[in-house]
Amino acid sequence: MIMAGGFAVTKEAATDLFAERFHEAGFSVLAFDYRHLGESDGQPRLVLPIRDQLADWEASAGLDWSGSPAHRGLSPC
Predict the structure, then answer these.
(1) Closest by alpha carbon to 70, among 15, 24, 4, 5?
(2) Which CA distances in Å does 25 have to 17, 48, 58, 70, 73?
(3) SS3 67
(4) Averaged over 26-49, what is the pLDDT?
(5) Theoretical Cys-Cys bridge with 38: which of 24, 33, 50, 56, CB 3.0 to 4.6 Å?
């Protein structure tokens, strides 16, 4: 499962809470902040072009989950 906040919500404020609950229910979860927001790197800060947000979703969906921490019994959150 891949999760990110709403338009300008960081994962720490809400997404992490939901991600942890899904993880406890047995799901592999990747929670991320969009570039330029929250714990993510990038300049300028707090700039949220929709094309960049869509690219972040596409990049997260392309990850290889076969070796994810959840598959080794560790929390990915």
Answers:
(1) 24
(2) 13, 32, 25, 12, 13
(3) helix
(4) 82
(5) 33
CB neighbour list of residue 77: distance below 8 Å, 6 or more residues apart:
16, 19, 20, 23, 29, 31
pLDDT per position as a tens digit, 38-49:
777 777 777 778
pTM of the model: 0.66
Closest residue by Cα to residue 15 from 4, 28, 30: 4
Closest CA to 1 of 70, 73, 53, 72: 70
